Amino acid sequence: MGITMFGYKAQATVGDQAYPAYELRIMLATLVKYLPPQSPLISQLYQELQLNEASLAKCAYVKVWQVHLAMQFARQSLGNAAGALIGQEYHPKDLDLLLPHFPQFTCLQDCFLFILKHPKLVGSLSDSMVMDDGDYLTVRWLNNSRLPRQLYCDLFVLSITALVTVARHLTAEAVCFDEVDLHGEGCDVAMFPQLTQSLNMVHDVCQWRLSKRWLALPITAATPLLPTPLDLPVTHSISDQVLTLLRERSPIIPAFAQVALALNLSERTLRRRLAQSNISYQLLVDLVRSQAALDLIIQGQLSVNQISEQLGYGDVCHFRQSFKHWLGLPPGYFRK
């Protein structure tokens, strides 16, 4: 069985971009399960999320910053096992945006390739390198959106435990990773039974490795019933608008004032709207530049000097410094 779709996947989302609401619902349900009954912390979190239980139940999408805030809240409330505890609560019936597509999946490989092509339908995804190693598949997460390291690792642990949990529901088999590497020591995955055969807690990236024999497993679970229709998201978030403009004009990066003018906003209004989404213009600029640079580096057709020039850097040393600032690793690391 071959995997034909691999390489660099630019899937990071930021700020007020759309994010599947089912992940936020699962986070809150997990908090309710593990916190004391009638804990005021749940009401407090809803207030900070600018949501209520009824509105969240009807949403198809929420905003990225809301999911990140809930993850940080879960870490404070549940400790360093938060990501794994949430991931264990996943069930195919709760993945409402994916349910219409389940009938076309015959094996786990079908599911995997689908979510790579449709990242907006799944939660807890990051920019990633997908590497086909013959009998194994390796997925390396990349922190292009420069999330705080702890939050980034918690989201990664949530993702891998959710992947295995859903895979076990779909196949009735004890699916597990062959290897998991974590970029940090602050996450506890020990309570998840047989998540991986090998766990490296101190690595320079977060990544997982899986035998393709698992991907060949047929889906044996019945297709869940479709849920009640959900409200569609508000389109064109301010983050989406700025990112679209930056990508259209890349490699030339317009000044903040030019972006505000192009969006028919005052600089003050644009700055305020970005701040409300816990995002900055510089972070969006860095996201566009880092994704463009990574794509060129991984293609392997240009030297670092040529990539530096193509992206508008007059000094290759400045480009190398910027790249390491974006990802914490030098450009050469991604050519190994």
Verbal overview:
It contains 14 helices and eight strands. It is globular. The protein has helices at residues 21-34, 40-49, 53-58, 64-78, 82-87, 108-117, 149-171, 212-215, 238-249, 256-262, 267-276, 281-299, 304-310, 316-327, and strands at residues 7-9, 18-20, 61-63, 127-132, 136-142, 179-183, 199-200, 202-211. The strands form two sheets. Strands 1-4-5-8-6-7 form a six-stranded mixed β-sheet, sandwiched between helices. It has a two-stranded antiparallel sheet with strand order 2-3. It has 336 residues and is an alpha+beta fold. Helix 1 runs parallel beside helix 4.
Quick structural overview:
It contains 14 helices and eight strands.
Q: What portion of residues is helical?
A: 40-55%
> Could you say which overall geometry the principal axes of the C-alpha atoms support?
globular
Oligomeric grouping of the chains: single chain
Number of strands: 8
Discrete helix count: 14
- Let me know the largest β-sheet: 6 strands, mixed
Stretches where pLDDT is under 50 for at least 5 consecutive residues are: none
Fraction in beta strands: 5-15%
Radius of gyration (CA) equals 20 Å
- The pLDDT mean sits at 90
Biggest sheet: strands side by side, in what order?
1-4-5-8-6-7
What are the secondary-structure elements, in order, as H or E? Answer: EEHHHEHHHEEHEEEHHHHHHH
